[in-house]
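Sequence and fold:
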Amino acid sequence: MDDNKEATKPYKRVLAWVGIVLLVGMYLLLLYEALTGSPDTYNVFLGCVAATIAVPILLWLLIWAIGAITGRHTVASLDPMTSNKKHDKYGNVVPDSGIDTVVFDIGNVLTNFAWDKFLENKGYDEEMVRRMGRASVYSKDWVEYDIGNLTTEEITQRFADNDPEIGDELKSAFADLTDIVTKRDEAIPWIRALKAAGYRVLVLSNFSKQALEGCKEAMSFLDVVDGGILSYRDHVVKPDRAIYDLLAKRYELVPEKTVFIDDTPANIKTARELGWHGIDYKDYDQVVKELHDLGVRY
């Protein structure tokens, strides 16, 4: 069945009949007033004119509000540029390309993973920042934040064990991850543009509870995406295939209709092995071009 020929939704029919009854009722009242020579005929006439204008506008606003609340495309949706596109049974735009889902990594894709600036802001000089980075961010223990099985104290103790001479500094610096991730201004407009064009937008990221709680402004785009997985919640991380399979199962992904954007080649490799399209993020313009080459236009 053609999705564009679905039966009119019940609430639309009800609203249409309400509008018709109101207008017909007003004009019947006008006819009665005119036939009986009532002195109120002129006022009723003005009321009919006003109702003829106001009722459709009010119904349009009501349908628009229903669409905004439910997230579904309606005849009142403010997207006239999609009138020539295909829509699904809910009225949502169906993408023109073979891709229907765009999956984003977060760090250094939708946000900046600014760990060095984070340490500089705590008063450490360039040499100390590099040294602390080797004992933490660049160590095998950093992933423990993202897996979510250890406490902050347990993780920072591992950092301290990696370089005992600066152990106290490491434990103090990483006890609070506020602003270790910073905002990218293009993130929310990018996501909204993709969604407006009909694409589903998800996230798949190695991400910690500590960073999420400490970087709320930078992570505000989570209110805009259609869902996804942050690794600490499920205790599994990329490039382990299990986290990709989990996302695919939860959101019923079709591999050949899914494109994954990540800045780590190993993570892209796993996605491609599963049949997903993969884009290795270098910069925003490069990704937009590669999405365009895949037929993703917005």
The first strand starts at residue 101 and ends at 104. The beta strands are 101-104, 111-113, 181-183, 200-205, 228-230, 258-262, 277-280.
